Amino acid sequence: MGCKCGKGSKVEPVVHPTPIHVGNTQKNYLGRRYDEDAFIDIDVTNQELKRDILDENVTVSALLETKSRNIDLNLQDPNAFNSKFCQQRQSAIDNQTYRKIVDSWPPSSLKHLSDLMREFSANKSSVDKAWIIFYWIGRNIEYDTVSYFSKNYANQSAEDVFKSRKGVCAGYGNLYKKLADEIGLKCENTSGYSKGYGFELGEAALADTDHAWNFVEIENRWPDEMIYHHLPENEQWQLLAHPISKQDFLSLPKTYPTYFELKLEMIVPKFSPTVSLLKGKPYTIIILKTPLDVDIIANLQLHKVAVKGGERIVYDKKKGYYKCYFAPQSSGLHKIHIYAKRKGTEGTYPSAIAFDFDVKGPLNSSISYPKTWEPYFNLNLEVLHPRNSFFLYLKDNVVSAEILIRAPAGVALIGSLKDSDNQKVTGGDQVYFNNRKSLWRCQFAPPKNGKFVITIFAKKETETGTYPCALEFELIATHLKSPISYPKTWQCFHDYQMEVVAPQNSRFGVWPPGASYCEILIRAPDDIQLTSKIAKDEKTIENGDLIQYDAEKELFHCLFAPRSAGTHTLTIFAKRTSDIDTTSSSAVQFGLNVTELKRSIRFPVIYTRFETDRCRIFEPLNGVIKRGSNVHFHWQIPNASEVKLMSDSEWKTVDSYENNILKHQLKLTNEKEVTVYGKYKDGNKFTGLAKYNVE
User: Fold this and answer.
1) pTM higher than 0.70 for the full model?
2) Are 289 and 264 in contact (CB under 8 A)?
3) Is the pLDDT reported for residue 42 higher than 70?
């Protein structure tokens, strides 16, 4: 054991950690005494929340009641794009045999290609014929970007496009019509205006026709969903019941095929390619209706860069529509993109619709929105604080940020803090449920100045598996001088209203130079019983932990004695004293980095009565005492009617036991063990409290 004392000398004293002065008003590791009213006043927050919701509802109602221009987009033939046609079209697209055969063709001339196509498409439907032509052109004709940008267009006849394998829109249209005519597919060419590459709204928009394309008759119908982005010069080919004007065309938002395939419907704005800030608000709102099996996401961009915290999407179950909020952080021409796909389908969200959002002049104020995922809505989570903020700033040496969330019963949350390198900050998060306020407190403490990502995960307690993402924020620390960290805590730590008195503001226990053990101070209510363990490399160290109660200061001294240098884990467990048949639950956990250990010790073997009666050992703390030495026993043993020592099998009457304090001097000879016993009013027998080994 490394002892240097000779025979008959006293036991060499254990090296104790530096004493920590603790008063009854000692602050806990959060920098305040445990007080559930110490954080944000939830009553105030609820009032703010109610005002926000009322304000948003009034704003949305006003938007819905605002009269906007009406543009009649009813088709001449409402059944042109019926479900049968859509199924036939998709079937042709998915037909891999068609693709393989068309890819195998080596046409030497346009006539040869026409012959191949005519033979292959014989007896096939007009949908299949239209797809076969489209597929061959798409695979074999390259867009002539040089001609497009130089405006020096080569001959765009079908023959020349086939030979050069290049063309612009007119060339594509001419080749398509030539092949359609050859295989008996009715097709027409048209020219007009488009909202294609490089299109920008403005006074010069659509000054001249700039595009050419085809119309194909399918089973005596002319299907068309292009009026949002293609306006034929000849009104006949608008294929609308009532042709629209060029100004009407410019008033339509930019749409993509997904918008029509998934049957989306714009509500606000009904007919406009642009949106603007709402009067007196730092945001705008787009309202969109979708079928029940469709999900949408969105983003806000400035100069093709996503605006962090720029969008918030809320599904209104009662109304059956999505409310899409967009909040810019600065002035400038922004782009709004909304994407959609069917629920349960894999892959990315295709583009559905887009808007221009021109923010003019400096913003008087700005807001931002946390990033949300599906569990946030499905689990009915609600951010109480901060409201309308993606960015959380730590200034003036504030060391942590707090997010308050309300969730239904049976929903559990966990959190994570990551640095700019996407590395998790250990000890950077603490998330728990506050029973009194019925909300989740999510606390995050960065280790240094910089930008960090806060992620909150959520799932039902009854569900197995990992926690999916629910919310994300960005934490920015600029004036952090004394960072803190959180020990790992479990829900019972907070349910039992436990406090960490020392170490303050750290996930690590303190290892003083030359010490034999470290000390964690915990305050807990009278009906809470604590136990503990110390482990290294996930192996528990026997007799390496001891929990004692300081009745004067009303706190627990949790002692941990490592056997060697290195990284250790210190875990404290808790239970209510009334829960006799219940095992203790993990409550709080610290790390301990032992840099140097000159003298290791083992604590005495502790029995149950020692823990339940909250006994305390002043000396000897070392559970291994030296044979032949004089040992002074100084203990606090509450409520015993009598105390004795047993040296091996021989009872020893103690020198003194008064006012719950045991004092006894024992001269050791050849004993192997010494046990401290107490007798209590609830029994006639002595009960073991702790045992020392003699070596």
Assistant:
1) yes
2) yes
3) no
